[in-house]
Design a protein that fits this description.
Elements (H helix, E strand, L loop, with lengths): L7 H7 L3 E5 L2 E6 L1 H7 L1 H6 L1 E8 L2 E8 L1
Antiparallel strand pairs: 1-2, 3-4
Amino acid sequence: MLTVIHDLDLALRYADEIAVMDGGRIVCAGTPEDVLDQGVLQRVFNVRIRAVEDEEGRGYLLFPR
């Protein structure tokens, strides 16, 4: 199944794979961990990301730079 979602926290939490687009082009694709490790979300969306543990497991907090 392919889903388009603009909520980065939900995408990181539930997607098996993520494709990050910038200017209509895919700039990175892979598992959420791969995408996070490459720092693509931070660069494309100009955010800081911090992993947190909650009652559902791992989640992410995103902060504007």
